[in-house]
Amino acid sequence: MVQIRHARRRSRGMTLLEILIVLALMAIATAFVFPMFGGPVSTSELRASARSLAAGLRLARSEAVSRRRETFLTLDVEGKRFKVDDDPREHTLPKRVELKLFTAQNDLVGDKVGAIRFYPDGGSNGGRITVAAGTRKFDVDVDWLTGRVAITD
């Protein structure tokens, strides 16, 4: 007679070693993937970008007054960088911030590049540069009459 053996059904779970291996693989994958998304922009990073732009605008204004000629701050919105006319340095801003430029139509160089102009008397064509990330933003305003630069939340 054939004896049928019933295999004992064992419920087999995962061992501690298997769990540790899976966790290690997940950690490695996260370490490579997470930086690609680049975490959120901090408020201090946004504020620093606005202050950097304001300093550049103030430099352009002082250059216009001291040299008695028009001076521009040129802003590349897409490239996230700006430059003052005679200053050899090009200042870069964090790639994760969003920039918007509001200026006179004749000072727009292209769709993504424009300038704010300062006159020898200290005045300006006026304008606004918005530095934003999500719902947080800082506006760098330039008064057209006085050329005064102010940062507002």
Q: Number of folding domains? A: 1
Shape: elongated
Q: How do the strands of the widest beta sheet line up side by side?
A: 3-2-1-5
The multimeric state of the shown protein is single chain
Could you walk me through the main structural features you see in this protein, from its secondary elements to its overall organization?
The chain has a single domain (43-152), classed as 3-Layer(bab) Sandwich (minor pseudopilin epsh fold). Strand 6 (127-133) and strand 7 (136-142) form a beta hairpin. Helix content is 31%, strand content 27%. The chain has a four-stranded antiparallel β-sheet with strand order 3-2-1-5, covered by helices on one side. Strands 4-6-7-8 form a four-stranded antiparallel β-sheet, covered by helices on one side. The longest helix is centred in the middle third of the chain and has 25 residues, at 43-67. With 153 residues, the chain is α+β, with helices and mostly antiparallel strands.
